[in-house]
Amino acid sequence: MLAYVHHLSPFIFEFSPGVGLRWYGMAYVLAFLLGHQLYYRLAKAGYTQMPPAQVSDFITWAAVFGVMLGGRVGWILFYGFKENHTDDPWWWPLEVWKGGMSSHGGILGLVLFTFYWARRHKLSWTSIGDSLCVVAPVGLFVVRCANFINGELFGHETKVPWAVQFPTELFDSRFSAVTSRAFDALEPLQAVVEKYGGEHASWSERIVEAARHEPQVRAILANVLTPRHPSQIYEALLEGVLLFLILWLVRTKCRVPRGVLTGLFFILYAVFRIAGEVFRVPDPAWAVGSFSAGQFLSLFMLLIGAAFIGWGMWSRHYESALELKSSGSGNS
């Protein structure tokens, strides 16, 4: 079977080995810009209690304290402590350039920040949260696409026609047999491979970098690497595209009380995340029985989502745009 040997660079521009503007960072910038435009549109249409003039400040601080801080702290709590760190433990949590962001942590961070913002500005927590949940999948989509570009979070072995061979497989100690075969197969090209990766790069890092530039290296790796599910794309389509379409349609076409959309986001995200991780190589940090770390954390989101929906159906508060639609159509 012919599979695509992944050779996308994580850098948009690279000034020196390992230093430059990364697609992963640009994905977050794009997520915030698109999220701002969509939230502003919902605010102007009356689908949230937040005044349109507050949207820019809200999205900016939500990005900093909700997504970035929450995502980083979540990764440290859920995954990071399983790794070996010899640096100053007080400095380590700030080293975001070394990677490590948790979507579950980012979501929890947004929930807490939205609660704070609502209390400070005397707004309905569920009102501003519902519209934030509608636009959040846009960010999930672009970040999952950046995961694919980085060649990280790849899937299980497969024989599907769209399988991808990820050279970053060589970084994972669980696939040491593949790494050994790659080292042996590329020995005749040692001089070529050694040109890449920088002075202190490992042999695996040099191979991955060489694969991005040298067709002959990719040709050899095509006979060594494991064809895998591009699980990042699966999750981008589920957690990003499909989740956004459902929530946008419910927000703009259905009359639902405040809190229901937030609950729907939690439940659908959990279902899509659990389904997507069926195809993904689990994080080596920890697992609970047959559940990966991501799947296990998603189970709690089902309970949180049910609580939000129950609260919304009990309280029965609606946005102004929905009240206008209701009065215009003669519905009670």
What does this 3D model show about the protein?
- With 332 residues, the chain is mainly alpha-helical.
- The protein is 58% helix and 6% strand.
- The chain has two domains: 19-152 and 232-329, no CATH class; 167-224, no CATH class.
- The protein has helices at 23-44, 55-78, 103-121, 125-150, 176-185, 190-193, 203-211, 215-221, 231-253, 260-276, 293-315, 320-329; strands at residues 4-5, 11-16, 19-22, 164-165, 227-228, 287-288, 291-292.
- The strands form three sheets. Strands 1-4-5 form a three-stranded mixed beta sheet. A two-stranded antiparallel sheet has the order 2-3. A two-stranded antiparallel ribbon has the order 6-7.
- Helix 1 crosses helix 2 (55-78), helix 3 runs antiparallel to helix 4 (125-150) and helix 4 (125-150) packs antiparallel against helix 9.
- The relative contact order is 0.13.
Helix/strand/pairing class, anyone? mainly alpha
Biggest sheet statistics: 3 strands, mixed
Distance between the termini: 60 Å
Any idea how many domains?
A: 2
Q: What portion of the residues fall into strands of 2 or more residues?
A: 5-15%
Oligomeric nature of the chains: single chain
Q: Could you list the spans in which at least 5 consecutive residues all have pLDDT below 50?
A: none
Give the helix level as a range of percent: 55-70%
Number of strands: 7
Mean pLDDT: 88
Shape: elongated
Strand order of the largest sheet: 1-4-5
Summarize the structure.
This protein is mainly alpha-helical and 332 residues long. The chain is built from 12 helices and 7 strands.
